[in-house]
Design a protein that fits this description.
- GO terms for molecular function: 4 iron, 4 sulfur cluster binding; iron ion binding; oxidoreductase activity, acting on the aldehyde or oxo group of donors; thiamine pyrophosphate binding.
- This is Pyruvate-flavodoxin oxidoreductase.
- It comes from Giardia muris.
- With 1196 residues, the chain is of the alpha/beta class.
- The protein folds into seven domains: 231 residues, Thiamin diphosphate (ThDP)-binding fold, Pyr/PP domains (Rossmann fold); 133 residues, Rossmann fold (3-Layer(aba) Sandwich), CATH 3.40.50; 204 residues, 3-Layer(aba) Sandwich (Pyruvate-ferredoxin Oxidoreductase, domain 3); 39 residues, Pyruvate-ferredoxin Oxidoreductase, domain 4; 147 residues, Alpha-Beta Plaits (2-Layer Sandwich); 64 residues, no CATH class; 171 residues, Rossmann fold, CATH 3.40.50.970.
- It is 42% helix and 16% strand.
- It is built from 49 helices and 36 strands.
- The strands form six sheets. It has a nine-stranded mixed β-sheet. Strands 30-29-31-32-34-33-35-36 form an eight-stranded mixed β-sheet, with helices on both faces. Strands 3-2-4-5-7-6-12 form a seven-stranded mixed β-sheet, with helices on both faces.
- Helix 23 packs antiparallel against helix 24.
């Protein structure tokens, strides 16, 4: 019997697939990426597969590319696999048809995920599986981590023996990322069951010039249909091969499976049919109801394709008269969902349909919507009705079409007795999730207990709300849903007490432990920071309330915000899951193992957090009175309530109805009626959320400020801003602001008027990255200092509120020259987003909107920038005082360049119609002198950015004043709002990361550059797939360690700039904000002003690089000083110009700062030395190549 091991579904499946595969052809996509990362890492470590080889791993440029390579590899006799989900799986569909038609034994492991329709979602359901059901591939669906591993064995054996492609699917996140203690089969137990004869037949039939054959022909009407029917017997045998593979799995593991599995009363009258993790939830309810004497049951669908009507009919008891089929997908415009249609057809084909009184369908769990036993009770209750509700939903409130079933509020808990349940409420990037994963492993490895961990995230890249649901118990855990009655609850952020007060306590079991991270120590202090409603719930549940100041412990250790080591130490001390002394020792060892790659300093800092937590008094118990809820609200709580009241008093209805409930953790309760039908949304909602996620925030002191504005330039979140105050505003501002005012010295500002200046950060929107502090040249004099947020929140927020509510924008009508010269004073139209603190991408976007935000239409590739750019309902893109601002849209990952090109075509075609009408009126002399003068002026400035707007305003007034029958037709067209909106030239911005630009979207990007059209492309180059977890792209540099490059990348970075320069009419720039913000801003201006294709490559440090994000600007500067990153401009009219001095420092000085390079040094020092020398040579040669090009360009 193999030892039980705590792993998630991705790891379990990857373990099996590695053994059975010769090659893995991969491309990253959430939530399947970890499977590919595991196999790449194991290959780098030298692990052998079932054939005694190291698995060959190749990353492709897209999922379509991976599918093509998969097809090619199989054609040459290699057992190949891939890992994918959602849109990526759709890109594989054409090849999947080919794989099935050619009988090739591919295995595609799929972490099933929602497809993008009205919105993208990275979470789990069966939408993608339903979209491939027609490809001819076999489809297996698993219920949990153990079965995903077992079905991976069955999938590979079936593919080989049946000579047919198989999709091994399991629920994204709910299975792929859930950690469970399972039995991982050792390779020695798999080896005897390798079907060597079938493998040899497959290899012998492959393409080979020694015995050539043809495949992939073109057939026509005379023969195509017959040739297809010739395969019928082959397809008919796939099911029996699958069942034989299940027999092998049983021999190896002792676990028995079938195509369809029934649980319940043998004489059940009401039966649910379902597949995936939801089956286990239904099983719990069924077993409970059967024990009470009810005749109910559930059928699990394990083999979805080929679908066997006979086997399904055998699984459903003949006594069943009421059947409900639950689909985890929605088929828009279909009469029913796919699984239901299969069940109905099967019952009809087997003669069972006539005996069924009702067969209905329901939908559940879309985009990982929680599906629990209360939902199951509601389904059975509905099924018993005289006329059951059909095509219903569970888990939501549908007050529009009224198709939802309410949860039964009296549903009992079905968690196995003796199970300890723990919830950890944390914040993205605080380390709590990683620490909890370690905790599961510690407990699973050191006790006989079963373990389960599921992690619920919001969409913020960092600073978002996270909830870790951990269960430990003596019995197997089948609870595939959130914890509702926790024995231990920990809250890592003091800001959560007000924001999520009820949410934090409503899942606590009576008499359970509640640990709060707070500086409050006494009853009086704790009362002051916890709202009445939360205190009442604590009191009603008689909770054991504990407090500790983990934030202060982390800050003292030099790890601001990283409270995980302290909080986890507290968990081991308080929970009793393990003896505390033993647990702490193991936790310390785990810290060393976890952080050793980051260096001894980081290890010691985390150990110091543990030591501080163990000190007497570090954790305090709070004894509260029975009337605690009647105590008066504390000042902080009152302040929060007042601030929230102010927001509600002025906020748009959408913000009140949707944005704030979602931001306060109540999105699940929102009814259908609150949502727009097409997924559209207003802009500018992030300013209402005030997350308060920073540990420390910047405080400005005016007396030593030299007004360089570098803090404004560097701020990634547009948090710190300069306010220009005129004489009419000075006296209305709060006293603390008036005391800080100084005369504005900027010459551009002074040319426009006499203003006072105040620099102020929004403390509740700040992420605490401290980049502003790091770049401040006079910080040693106190110009900027970082203070703990809760010490200064109210005073700083009052200053910010005073300034933002009273001071008006002074720069909206500035000329383009003035905008560029003093861009920091322009209002940013991109603010307060959810990117990582210190993000290297977002300051670029901020400054683009400062220059041209009121004219932008943005096509944003899927990736980090699309997630922080628009994660519903948070829009950081906002409007100026005129109501103008960026219009933003995301299509997909791979098609962004074409998407943006289509936008341009649409805008140009519509504007051209207006232009043609206006020109026609000029030619005919229609509209009068004033109209004609305005029209000629507008036509002359038609293609200019600022001038088309100013002349367009004049023309619009003249259009409205047109009179007379001779211009009636023209006025009818020109006077439409949709026409007037186009007088000012919109600017098309195609934006995305290097994964899009260098890899999956490169063909489209090349098409746009070759088009000669007036469009700007902006590449946020982090040199890695940041959004999916740090996989290498073609932008990843030589020697860098990344996912899919575990032993260091062995090829140079793709030279996108040089490729773009091959188009002589394309403007090309490479910029680095921290090196030269003047060059960056100038390049942005020139790119938008160039009436042809333009592309800007922007160096963007990322947290995946393994360097502190308060060093973003320093990294950008050093990258240029070492030649690691080139800064230049290639204007089609003036040629290539290098910016700044020649590289003056060796590249190793840059590499030594970042863990992605240092890791290779520590693990493979000789290889690292060789690759780093090679990288230096590449950098030297590249610089010479560019300077030679610049010199020749100058001569020309």
């Amino acid at each position: 019997m193999p030892k039980a091991t705590p792993v998630d579904g991705n790891c379990a499946v990857a373990h099996v697939s590695y053994f059975f595969s010769d090659a893995a052809l991969i491309f990253p996509i959430t939530p399947s990426s970890p499977m590919a990362e595991y196999v790449d890492s194991w290959a780098a470590q030298g692990r052998k597969n079932g054939f005694g080889q190291i698995l060959r791993v190749e990353e492709l440029n897209s999922e379509g590319g991976a599918a093509g390579a998969l097809h090619g590899a199989l054609s040459t006799g290699v057992l190949a696999t891939t890992y994918t989900a959602s849109q990526g799986l759709l890109l594989m569909v054409p090849n999947m048809y080919k794989l099935a038609g050619e009988h090739l034994p591919a295995v595609l492991h799929v972490a099933a995920r929602t497809l993008a329709t009205h919105s993208l979602s990275v979470h789990g359901d069966h939408s993608d599986l339903m979209a491939i059901r027609q490809t001819g591939c076999a489809i297996i669906v698993s219920e949990d981590v153990q079965q995903a591993a077992d079905m991976a064995i069955a999938a590979h054996l079936t593919a080989i023996n049946a000579s047919h492609p198989v999709v091994n699917a399991f629920d994204g996140f709910r299975t792929s990322h859930t950690i469970k203690k399972i039995e991982l089969v050792d390779y020695s137990e798999l080896e005897p069951h390798l079907p060597h004869d079938a493998i040899e037949r497959f290899r012998k039939s492959s393409l080979n010039p020694e015995h050539p054959h043809m495949r992939g022909s073109c057939q026509g009407p005379p023969v195509w249909m017959q040739a297809g029917e010739a395969d019928n017997m082959h397809y008919d045998k796939v099911i029996s091969h699958f069942e034989e593979s299940l027999g092998v799995v049983e021999k190896i593991t002792g676990r028995k499976y079938a195509c369809f599995e029934y649980t319940g009363a043998p004489d059940a009258t009401s039966v649910i049919v379902i597949m995936g993790s939801g089956y286990l939830t239904v099983c719990e309810a069924v077993e409970h109801l059967v024990a009470k004497g009810e005749k109910v049951g559930v059928v699990c669908v394990r083999l979805f394709r080929p679908f066997s009507p006979e086997r399904l009919a055998t699984a459903i008891p003949r006594t069943a008269t009421r059947i409900c089929v639950m689909d985890r997908s929605k088929e828009i415009t279909a009469c029913a969902e796919a699984l239901r249609l299969d069940v109905v057809s099967s019952l009809q084909m087997t003669g069972r349909l006539s005996g069924v009184v009702h067969i209905i369908g329901g939908r559940y769990g879309l985009s990982s919507k929680d599906f629990n036993t209360a939902d199951v009770f509601a389904i059975f209750k509905n099924l018993q009705r005289v006329k059951p509700l059909d095509r219903f939903t569970v888990g939501i409130t549908d007050d529009v079409t009224h198709l939802s079933l309410p949860r039964d509020p009296c549903s009992p808990s079905l968690v196995p007795p003796g199970t300890v349940q723990c919830i950890f409420y944390g914040m993205g990037s605080d380390g709590v999730v990683g620490a909890n994963k370690n905790a599961i492993k510690i407990i699973a490895d050191n006790t006989p207990l079963y373990a389960q961990g599921y992690f619920d995230y919001d969409s913020f890249k960092a600073g978002g709300f996270t909830a870790a649901h951990l269960r430990f118990g003596p019995q197997p855990i089948r609870c595939e849903y959130f914890i509702c009655d926790a024995d231990y609850t920990a809250v890592s952020q003091p800001s959560y007490f007000n924001k999520y007060s009820g949410l934090l306590v409503e899942r606590c079991k009576p008499n359970s432990i509640l640990l709060l991270n707070t500086p409050a120590r006494t009853l009086e202090e704790v009362t002051a920071v916890i709202p009445k409603a939360m205190r009442q719930m604590i009191e009603e549940r008689s909770l054991q309330l504990k407090v500790m100041d983990a934030s202060a412990i982390a800050l003292e250790a030099g790890l601001p915000g990283r409270i995980n080591s302290a909080m986890q130490a507290a968990f081991f001390l308080l929970s009793g899951v393990l003896p505390s002394e033993e647990a702490i020792k193991i936790w310390r060892d785990t810290i060393v193992k976890t952080f050793k790659r980051k260096g001894e300093k980081v290890v010691n800092q985390n150990l110091a957090c543990v030591d501080a937590t163990l000190k007497p008094g570090a954790i305090a118990s709070i004894d509260y009175p029975r009337n605690w809820a009647s105590f008066e609200e504390g000042p902080g709580v009152k302040y929060y309530n007042e601030r929230l009241g102010k927001i509600l008093s002025t906020a748009p209805e959408f913000v009140k109805d949707v944005v704030l409930p979602v931001s306060l953790g109540r999105g699940d309760a929102l009814p259908v009626s609150k949502f727009e039908r097409n997924g559209f949304m207003m802009t500018g909602t992030t300013k209402f959320t005030k997350r308060g996620v920073a540990v420390r925030v910047p405080i400005w002191q005016s007396s030593t400020c030299i007004q360089c504005m570098l803090c404004v330039t560097a701020c990634p979140h547009a948090v710190i801003r300069p306010y220009l105050i005129d004489s009419s505003e000075e006296g209305r501002l709060c006293a603390s602001v008036q005391e800080a005012m100084i005369d504005a010295k900027n010459p551009v500002v002074k040319r426009h008027g006499s203003y006072k200046l105040v620099l102020q950060a929004s403390p509740l929107d700040c992420t605490g990255c401290s980049l502003c502090y790091q770049v401040c040249p006079t910080k040693d004099k106190g110009t900027l200092r970082m203070e703990v947020l809760h010490h200064v929140e109210q005073t700083e927020a009052a200053k910010f509120d005073s300034l933002s509510s009273i001071v008006t924008p002074k720069t909206e009508d500035w000329s383009i020259d003035d905008r560029v010269a003093a861009y920091q004073f322009r209002e940013p139209l991109f603010e307060y987003h959810g990117a990582c603190a210190g993000c290297g991408e977002t300051a670029y976007i901020t400054h683009i909107t400062r220059l041209f935000g009121d004219r932008l239409i943005i096509a944003n590739a899927t990736g980090c920038s699309s997630i922080y750019g628009f994660s519903y309902p948070y829009s950081p893109f906002t409007k100026n005082s005129k109501g103008h601002g960026p219009a933003w849209a995301n299509s997909l990952f791979e098609d962004n360049a074409e998407f943006g090109l289509g936008m341009l075509v649409g805008i140009q075609q519509r504007r051209q119609r207006v232009l043609d009408v206006v020109k026609g009126m000029i030619e005919k002399g229609l509209g009068g002198d004033e109209f004609l003068a305005a029209a000629r002026d507008w036509v002359a400035n038609y293609s200019k950015i600022v001038e088309s707007e100013t002349t367009g305003l004049v023309l619009a007034e003249q259009i409205k004043a047109l009179q007379g029958s001779d211009v009636a037709e023209q006025k009818a067209l020109l006077g439409q709002a949709s026409s007037l909106d186009l007088l000012a030239k919109p600017l098309i911005l195609i934006m995305g990361g290097d994964g899009w630009a260098y890899d999956i979207g490169f063909a489209g990007l090349d098409q746009v550059l070759a088009s000669g059209l007036d469009v700007t492309i902006f590449v946020l180059d982090t040199e890695v797939y940041s959004n999916t977890g740090g996989q290498r792209s073609k932008a990843t540099p030589l020697s860098a360690v990344a996912r899919f490059a575990a032993s260091g990348k062995r090829t140079e970075k793709k030279d996108m700039g040089l490729i773009a320069m091959s188009y002589e009419d394309t403007y090309v720039a490479s910029i680095s904000l921290g090196s030269s913000h003047a060059h960056a801003i100038k390049s942005i201006r020139e790119a938008f002003e160039w009436e042809g294709p333009s592309i800007i490559l922007a160096y963007a440090p990322c947290i995946e690089h393994g360097e502190s994000m308060d060093q973003t600007s320093a990294a950008q500067k050093l990258a240029v000083e070492t030649g690691y990153w080139l800064t230049y401009t290639r204007h089609p009219k003036t040629g290539l110009k290098m910016v700044g001095a020649a590289p003056s420092k060796p590249v190793k000085e840059f590499l030594g700062r970042q863990n992605r390079f240092k890791q290779l040094v520590s693990e493979r020092s000789a290889i690292a030395e060789e690759l780093h020398d090679e990288l230096q040579k590449f950098i030297d040669d590249r610089y010479k190549k560019y300077t030679d090009l610049a010199a020749s360009s100058k001569k020309e």
